[in-house]
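ARCHIVE CARD
CATEGORY: sequence design from structure
SOURCE FIELD: tokenized fold
FIELD CONTENT:
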């Protein structure tokens, strides 16, 4: 793993004249070639065009907050002149206008290098559901890179760029940051515009920042934050300053019975050891995770999954075989959940009533929701194992889903038929392996987004 220059270090060199934006951009392209992983980027800009932008910037952009900083953009955000694919070639289009976040980066002096790989339609936390390959984890090539912003996380961790944008609906920015040992920042909902971003779950989507340090991530957020008339969900809130550290740390952890390790004894032991170390930094506070789990399940067992169906509906209707089998199965269930959710208004508010008590329970929260980081080979051999485990876990506790009641029982066979029909239309597992290779069959350590 390369420990690269931070944004702060690059800015200092540019302003001191010891390096130029043109040299920095050329170095990024050289590192991309030397790294030799074609699965990180789906599309690279023409190097000569990027260098020309950097050269023009040097003439009068020295005071810009991201003066000459190379940046990578997740390929579910529009960059004028480059295709937007969402890791689905059948969905690809070529926008003539930048997404708001890309336009703000450019105005701040950043130079777009290319567009990065992702789990198709930003649906996954593993970074392996893409026809463009699987980016190598920057720490250990045997491990999954994390998703869905896989390419952005690896690009920063490998030192190819100091800054990348991802998205984060249910962990898609923070998970690849964690698995590649960098910083992933998810802004408050609505703080950063999502205009020009392919929706995963339109009402919950966030553009996330991936960087080497917290200071770098905050510098980028200062550029990105702000209201946007193009985005009806944006909120014109000023970006606040970091607060003072509390006199005593209170670290929230799940209650012992709610720590989920999927029978991974080593992961459980590692977590216990981590808590022992954290206890030396402050007070450990056990919290009830049940309302959080209920809220999380709404993403995939409630009306929010219908938003994923809406985003991918044109491809599903015309060419369902273009979707990864697991992605297709998840999205197709949106037909059922959208109808059932409409009959049950206020579902999101039910668990939310119990969450107000956690507004300041502790900080930070040390949550362990799965076993150790999955190995690529293991996920390839058992593409549905984790999903079966999650289903089994859900059967063991209270569920907030549309599976209850006579109406849901009548709807369940219809939903299963929709999924089966979609899978048959897509050609099944054998056809996918023939068409796109075995990496398509990697499943998930959680659906994610």
């Amino acid at each position: 793993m390369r420990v690269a220059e931070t944004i702060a270090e690059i800015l200092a060199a540019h302003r001191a004249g010891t390096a130029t934006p043109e040299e920095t951009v050329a170095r990024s392209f050289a590192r991309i070639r030397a790294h030799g992983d074609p699965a990180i980027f789906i599309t690279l800009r023409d190097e000569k065009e990027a260098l020309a932008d950097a050269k023009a910037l040097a003439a009068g952009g020295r005071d810009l907050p991201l003066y000459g900083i190379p940046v990578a953009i997740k390929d579910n955000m529009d960059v004028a002149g480059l295709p937007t694919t969402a890791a689905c070639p059948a969905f690809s289009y070529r926008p003539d206008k930048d997404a708001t976040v890309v336009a703000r980066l450019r105005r701040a002096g950043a130079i777009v290098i290319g567009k990065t790989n992702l789990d198709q339609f930003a649906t996954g936390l593993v970074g392996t559901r893409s026809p463009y390959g699987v980016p190598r984890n920057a720490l250990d090539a045997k491990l999954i890179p994390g998703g869905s912003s896989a390419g952005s996380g690896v690009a920063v961790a490998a030192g190819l760029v100091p800054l990348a944008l991802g998205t984060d609906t249910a962990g898609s920015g923070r998970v690849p940051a964690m698995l590649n040992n960098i910083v992933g920042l998810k802004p408050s909902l609505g703080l950063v515009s999502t205009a020009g971003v392919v929706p995963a779950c339109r009402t919950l989507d966030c553009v996330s920042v991936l960087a080497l340090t917290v200071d770098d991530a905050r510098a980028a957020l200062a550029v990105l934050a702000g209201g946007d008339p193009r985005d009806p969900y944006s909120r014109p809130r000023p970006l606040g300053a970091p607060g003072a550290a509390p006199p005593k740390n209170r670290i929230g952890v799940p209650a012992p019975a709610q720590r989920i390790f999927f029978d991974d004894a080593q992961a459980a032991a590692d977590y216990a050891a981590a808590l022992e170390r954290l206890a030396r930094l402050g007070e450990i506070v056990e919290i009830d995770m049940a309302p959080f789990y209920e809220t999380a399940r709404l993403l995939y067992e409630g009306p929010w999954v219908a938003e994923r169906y809406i985003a991918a509906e044109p491809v599903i209707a015309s060419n369902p075989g273009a979707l990864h089998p697991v992605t297709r199965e998840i999205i197709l269930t949106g037909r059922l959940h959208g109808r059932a959710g409409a009959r049950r208004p206020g579902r999101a508010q039910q668990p939310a009533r119990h969450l107000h008590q956690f507004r300041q329970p502790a900080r930070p929260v040390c949550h362990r929701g799965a076993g150790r980081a999955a190995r690529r080979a293991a996920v390839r051999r058992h593409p549905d194992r984790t999903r079966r485990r999650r289903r089994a876990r859900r059967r063991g506790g209270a569920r907030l889903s549309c599976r209850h009641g006579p109406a849901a029982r009548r709807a369940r066979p219809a939903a299963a038929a929709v999924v089966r029909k979609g899978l048959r239309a897509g050609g099944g597992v054998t056809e996918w392996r023939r068409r796109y290779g075995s990496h398509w069959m990697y499943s998930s350590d959680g659906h994610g987004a």
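CARD ANNOTATION: The radius of gyration is 22 Å. Residues 241 and 316 are 44 Å apart (CA to CA).
SHELF: design records, drawer C
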